[in-house]
Write the structure tokens for this entry.
Amino acid sequence: MERIIFSLLVLLQFSACSSQSRFEEFIHDFEIISLPIEHMQDITTEDTLGGKLINDIIIRSQKNNPQYVDINGNTKAVKQYYGLYPEEPFEYGHRGKRLYFYPKISPIGQLDLNEDYISLIIKVVGFETTFYDLWNFSKDGKALSVICLFWGLRDDGPKSEEVTYTIVDSKITKEGLIKWHENADGLETFRTYKLNEDGYFEIIKEEQKGEYEF
């Protein structure tokens, strides 16, 4: 029995070391970005990541959803990240032809928001949308918190990467504060996020204007 327990402990330790090694290899694709960042879409790269790779490291390997701290100080799960980044091409028809659009997932860069954590920006160009996500990890590769920094729609779909309508946009100050803005169907939300000492993005200020237009 003791041998079985010892063997299981060795396997668990090996798995953890292997996972951390993969994460350390993964983050080498992200170069350090200096602050402040005024225009999110100005930061780009031609490098791409595989959808399966990024999902295996960021999402499938995690036991819990990433979390954030709301304006009242409550820790909440980021529910929209149950989903995965695109792994397969999107099939669509054009003038009677069957075509395929291949999403681009790019390692935009790494931010130094706190020396105890690792913060990465990932860009995804989907079939009709473009977005930038900011993920924060512990040093051993556990995804703690995430913010969508930018989300825009492209009217021309796969024919153009030019964003025609911006829903979410952000600026990041030299102090590392994220100035976040969303315009969703007439309701504007303004937030200021910071990375707290526990590694979670925390809303420290929030204001809303307008109302939803149905």
